[in-house]
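Hi all, long-time lurker, first post. I run a small reading group and we've been trying to get comfortable going from sequence to structure in the token notation. Rather than ask abstract questions, I figured I'd post a concrete chain and ask someone more experienced to write out its structure so we can walk through it together at our next meeting. Sequence below, copied exactly:
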Amino acid sequence: MAGAQVKVNGPAASASVATRILGIDPGLRSTGFGLIDSLGSQLRYVASGCIKTGEGSLPERLKIILDGVREVIATYKPDQAAVEIVFVNVNPQSTLLLGQARGAAICGAVSCDLPVAEYTALQVKQAVVGHGKAAKEQVSHMVQRLLSLEGAPSSDAADALACAICHAHGSSGLAAMAGIGTRRRGGRLSA
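-- Answer (accepted) --
Happy to help. Here is the structure in token form:
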């Protein structure tokens, strides 16, 4: 299992392995990514950024997202991924395009044999800020505080880091990845 080696002082263990989590905030123009190492309740920032697609055709942009996610995985070697679930927009065309970007990102992770967990925006905000109706600025501020960042990450990167934090701290996060306490219902995983 790939993971960063983190030394832990104390009687329990002399060395433990942190879980590296890749958070993804899908978008057709800019897909945010953020990586953290999680060991118990401790979180450590690894990297974050955005995969920019430019103005090409839809298939070309989706390939850029797919390849970009694969490149991030090859570079940082995460153990797990967490992706935000698409919300239904007022404009159905926008929702469909976002869904395709999300699909490309998930395919990029799955093609690298990375398990993927999915979270709603409400779950992510609840895990990071404490309530599901938090503004983007509040999420960004809490990400900065929780990871002890000197500056604020870009909006897309902050959302991706928030998704990774949600997975690290979520009640169903690691258990869901292991299949503990979950059932399959209609092809979907549910608690």
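A couple of things your group might point at:
The domain at 5-182 is CATH 3.30.420.10 (Nucleotidyltransferase; domain 5).
The chain has a mean pLDDT of 83.
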